[in-house]
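Researcher: Hi, I'm a grad student and pretty new to this. My advisor asked me to get structures for two proteins we've been looking at. I'm not sure of the right format, so I'll just paste the first sequence and hope you can take it from there.
Model: That works fine. Here's the first sequence with its structure tokens right after it:
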Amino acid sequence: MDDTHQPIPEARQGTVARTLAEWKTLALLGGPILIAQIAQVANGVIDTVMAGHASAEDLAAVGIGSSLWVPLFLMFMGVLGALQPIVSGHRGARAFGQIMPVTWQGIYIGLGAALIMVGLLLNVRPVLNLLRLDLHTALLTQGYLDAFCWGVPAILLMTALRGLTDGLGHTHVIMAFSVLGTLINLPLNYIFIYGKLGMPAMGGVGCGWATSISSWIAMLSLLVYLNRSRVFHHFHLWRERAKPDWEIINEVLRLGVPIGFTIFVEASMFSVIALFLAPLGPVVVAGHQIALNVVSLVFMVPLSLGMALTLRISFLVGARETDTARLLGRSTLVLAVAIALCFASILWLGNSLIATLYTNDPAVQAVSMHLLVFAALFQIADVTQVTCISALRGYKDTSVPMVIMVFSFWGIGLPLGWVLTFTDTFAEPMGAAGFWVGLTVSLVSAGLMLGTRLFRFRVSAQPATA
């Protein structure tokens, strides 16, 4: 076992010393998480850049296809994300015998989620018809999703196993295999998109096949590692396999479904925007996709910090170090805002350079540059909401944050974005920028309400763990 989760003796440390010690622990936990998240997002960046250099239609197809599968994946990732604080809490309480049964229920949940996700993605033709896409783009989008579906089981099983590795404090494990998947995805993209080594040029469809193959290689490699590594010899998957336990499954789902739905609400907001923009043409969709890719990549830093915060707070609560948990949640918010200011400056001042890295099309560059300005403006609100909601997940408070996110994104942001984009209610129609204004307003709303809840939260309100 590593020592990244060991309690900090509160009586012997001042507030500043304790804060710095906890930030060091977050860095040890969050650094590998950040690299893993960047590796996973890098797959999307690689797909976008390489498809963009094939054609605007291929880029639009990958963007629309991603807008359909990413919210589903993130929703199920959130559901399975309940495993991490549960496992971490069991570790903090030294209830090691409960860890493998929970892990196996996560595997079963992941398999069920894969069946649902594949079934939905293979039947998106009615959605594509509603978007009024031109026939060529619609066929490319469907072909991309058909290929991607083969990798869905591997992606979700790896997500379930992450509950074990991250929950035990070994965040470097998923980091290593995520990087492996990305390194494999890059050459496969080159081969399949542009037709190398005797393969036909598939364009955007090749991105789906590359992602599927690289995902299976990474997941199978992770399984081999977990069953042979000395680090995990106390938590052997096959030796300690468990049958489905509906009581534990229900407890995981009770905690995980609100997390998954919360993530889906936020992610679908971005994706629905791309779908609503589809009738405006591939140039607008492509520009939005570039801006979204950049924002997603930048977001990995506060997201990884938040994931580490969830792990650490759940451990501290399990170890009954509640004062340290409260101090950590509040101090990390200050750290996250400082990070947001740095990224806002980069997006504001470097939007032109960023756009040219993605595409050579001047029209697409202009759209993406305009949207990146809005992305810079909502950085502080974005990191505030993700930090607060991550801390609350460490306390296993998930239902109320879910309601806050639904209200902010679907009740405020999306309707406002629609009005600003397509109508002249407040001003001339703003096009894609209108939805990004709506995003900013929804993030501010979520950040304020989640921050208020975090500062008023009492540990006694937390539900029992699985």
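Researcher: Oh nice, that was easy. Here's the second one.
Model: And its structure:
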Amino acid sequence: MSTTMLPIFDYRGQPMKLQTKRTYRLRVKNGYILALLPQQHQVKLPNLLNVQKAS
């Protein structure tokens, strides 16, 4: 059994690292994790994995 680490992005599509003692709402989207703080809402994002590969 292999383990794959999924990249984590904030609600604007920027890569991020999770902080300790913070509560996030996590959503798996198109092969990545979207981490939202309680006051944040998901914005319409393209498939971020395709965007990263093109850069």
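Researcher: Is there anything I should tell my advisor about the second?
Model: You could mention this: The two ends are 31 Å apart (CA to CA).
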